[in-house]
Amino acid sequence: xxxxxxxxxxxxxxxxxxxxxxxxxxxxxxxxxxxxxxxxxxxxxxxxxxxxxxxxxxxxxxxxxxxxxxxxxxxxxxxxxxxxxxxxxxxxxxxxxxxxxxxxxxxxxxxxxxxxxxxxxxxxxxxxxxxxxxxxxxxxxxxxxxxxxxxxxxxxxxxxxxxxxxxxxxxxxxxxxxxxxxxxxxxxxxxxxxxxxxxxxxxxxxxxxxxxxxxxxxxxxxxxxxxxxxxxxxxxxxxxxxxxxxxxxxxxxxxxxxxxxxxxxxxxxxxxxxxxxxxxxxxxxxxxxxxxxxxxxxxxxxxxxxxxxxxxxxxxxxxxxxxxxxxxxxxxxxxxxxxxxxxxxxxxxxxxxxxxxxxxxxxxxxxxxxxxxxxxxxxxxxxxxxxxxxxxxxxxxxxxxxxxxxxxxxxxxxxxxxxxxxxxxxxxxxxxxxxxxxxxxxxxxxxxxxxxxxxxxxxxxxxxxxxxxxxxxxxxxxxxxxxxxxxxxxxxxxxxxxxxxx
Length: 502
Known about the structure:
By secondary structure, the chain is an alpha/beta fold. The chain has helices spanning about 5-20, 50-55, 70-80, 110-115, 210-230, 265-285, 305-310, 330-335, 360-365, 385-390, 460-480; strands at about 25-30, 60-65, 120-125, 160-165, 175, 180, 185-190, 200-205, 235-240, 290-295, 335-340, 350, 355, 400-405, 410-415, 415-420, 445. It is globular and about 60 Å long.
């Protein structure tokens, strides 16, 4: 291990152990919210987000934070494991509501790490990492909903869970409480409206799509109140993966029309209101000062938000970045990241450090005074010294690896970003296999002068291309991007998206 890294880890543990009681931690993960949807990040935003702005104003705003992937499931895997998503068995795409779990049995997660440190752990919201349902036949939907569910949140280190299996537009539409379906489905529902779309599937009698976010929020508020009065004084970790503003875009009536943009903007306002409710509850319970609240998104905004309609309102969810959800471009994976911890993080802090959501695992280890074993958090780097204002001048990360929906790779080091595909690797133009004839196979952008990724300089800097390709190759082959013993990747040792390694 690099000695500076080792010393910093030890110093962060000393700082936490010596100067503070262990903080509560609430991790709020929005679903498909763009960087440009938060008014403290986008000065031209047409959507006012006062509660998120307050979170940033009273804590730390990251301006260069990234999800590990441009889509849902992979990003969630990385957040909870501290491991790049493409090291799992899922090499492209996302899971569905009936998909089996992709969390490897026995793998340490952020939840099990907190639990090991004596935290009460809870998850409320959209899981989307797969569940082992009790199957009755070969079809995906052949499930006995009355039987317990295996390899879900309880097996990943959470003491309790209440939520849904996947995205709000993916069946089954049932609430899961711990390892059981709360109410058995009794009908089929579907909605073909473009913004309110959800696929046909079995639906429980207590399930209304527009009521899911309010119900989950109430659960979180109740858990905060319960945690604030815990008899043993133990801290809590709450992971709150929201089902919004992902489709179906279903703001409740009091938010419809309030944003002055469109229905998506109204849903963003509803998400902002959820954050406000959590901040108020922490204050009411007298635990705001020593509670870390993190807010981020799993990827960029989806085109389902209707970019054209929003543009007519002069609003761009991707801000100045190219692309959107699913893409290898910045709009696919550059995400908001706001952190408030009044007891330790100085209000009004802004960081331009390039960071990744995969870093939460190592940060949580530092926060709880633990050291990660070699087979956990292989790609995670602690932000704790940055939070405490005691970090050095060296970059936190050597590089960041990005991943698109079709499994295309990109690596960013400093101002340089190499994209190992000829187009977006996702849903924006040029889409995979429809690139203009003669397009270069790869793309290289100098973000310091081309944040919009419009000037491909792949032919001008062969040394940079060689350096970044070699670095990414090493990260893949060693099974980690941090110091430590090399680890195996899960699944096949080579897969089609690694064609450039040949």
